[in-house]
Amino acid sequence: MTMTMDATAPDPAASRQVPWTPGSFALSHAWFPLVHLAELGRMPIRRMIHSQSYIIRRTGEGIVANRDSASGPAAPVIARYGFAWIWHGDPAEADDAFMPDIPFLPRDRLQPGYARDTNFFHCTYELVLENILDLTHIDFVHRNFSGPEDSDEDTVRFESTSETVTMIRTIRNKQTSDYQRDVLGITAPFQDQHVFTHVFIRSGVCFLHSHYSAAPSMPLMQSNTPESRFMTRASVVFGIQQCDSPAYRRAWPRTGPTVAAQDEAMLDPQNPRYLNDPGKADFSTRFDAAGLHFRSRYNALVERQKAGDFAYMPDYLDGNDVAEVLKVRRV
Ligand SMILES: [Fe+2]
């Protein structure tokens, strides 16, 4: 197996020296997809962003969100992509231009119930995003679904902007997984695979997608909302319109809780190590480059917000149109 990296600024070697204290700062001024619209009625729902309560409900006028209590200050809210999105930050700065563009989800329609779910990770959301950007964990933690790590070629490319980190992994001749062979009936013993992850640093929202040369696949959006330093709410919606197999459209979302439990088994023990002993430096290798980019970009956002600068840089737009990167059709 050969593994190659294609790096752009910032330099990951320099990033290795950057201190890393996840859960110590609450980034704000971002849209968070808090509630599946299908779950929202006139009965108020209480949800958290960075330990701040929001009360959300439908009224005769539309969807209303308030901070702290049902009579607290109003918070900006937008219904889109099947979610009620809440702006966490100064309401005067709320602008839907800062909402992620999700090319594989209908903007104004709900996906069917089987294509959405919610899981939880008992850790701060930065660790969830690092895990999602880790190019190797899939082969070990989710081996039954994605296949073992052996392949002829394994290339990882990553890009980042001030607000996003993207990882693209290309694998040649990877063994078909147990799930693909036994459940999906894929007979090809080896496949080429392209894996994409795209992460929005402020909110935790991410897109995940894989293309296999023989097996079906479909993209998903996962919210990774930081409820507190100890809890991440991961609401997911699958882009079923990208998949031509009706059986797979229904079968794959049902694996979500198992996949999430595999990640939770790793993440839950990590959290106290970071929160209780943040001074010790991590050991990283060059294969962690996407995660190190994430740490570097995350720290830069923290420093800007500590200094009172909550603005989005012009390069935000570069990380907000990923239909071509993900190789999906716009719906
Ligand atoms: Fe995972």
Automatic annotation (TrEMBL):
GO terms for molecular function: oxidoreductase activity. Keywords: Oxidoreductase. It comes from the Bacteria. This is Vanillate O-demethylase oxygenase-like C-terminal catalytic domain-containing protein. It comes from Sphingobium baderi. Residues 121-304 form the Vanillate O-demethylase oxygenase-like C-terminal catalytic domain. PANTHER family: 3-KETOSTEROID-9-ALPHA-MONOOXYGENASE, OXYGENASE COMPONENT, IRON-SULFUR DOMAIN CONTAINING PROTEIN. The keyword Oxidoreductase applies. The keyword Kinase does not apply. InterPro entries: Cholesterol_7-desaturase, VanA_C_cat.
